[in-house]
Amino acid sequence: MATQVLTGDNFESTVLDNDIVFVDFWASWCGPCRMFAPVYEAASQAHPDIVFGKVDTEAERTLAAAAKISSIPTLMAFKQGNLIFSQPGAMAAPAFDQLVEAVRAFDVEQAARESA
What we know:
The chain has 116 residues and is α/β, with parallel strands linked by helices. The protein has five helices and five strands; from the N terminus they run βαβαβαββαα.
C-alpha cells in the first residue's frame, strides 16, 4: 500500500480506525526528510496491512503544532489508537524495519495494565 496523505481532516480517523499507523511528519525543503522518504515508501509496500501516513508540516501547520512537532522528520507510531513511539530524525532501513516489528509485537493492553 502506498503512503497516505494525512491532514487535519483525516488524521484522527486514520489513527483511530486502523490497528497500526505510522506517521511521517516532513517538509519538502528538509534534506533528511527526502533521504528518509524512499525508506518509508518501501516499508509501506512491504507491509500492506499497516497504514503509512505522511503529514506535510508546511501545509498542515495546525496539525504539526497539535502534535508538538519541533524537528523534522519526526516519526510516530500508533497502535490501537495509542501513540507508542515518537522520535525525530531519519532512520536507516534496517532500523525502521526493526521498529515496524517492535510495533507489531507491542501489547497495548499489557502496557496499560502495567502503567495502571
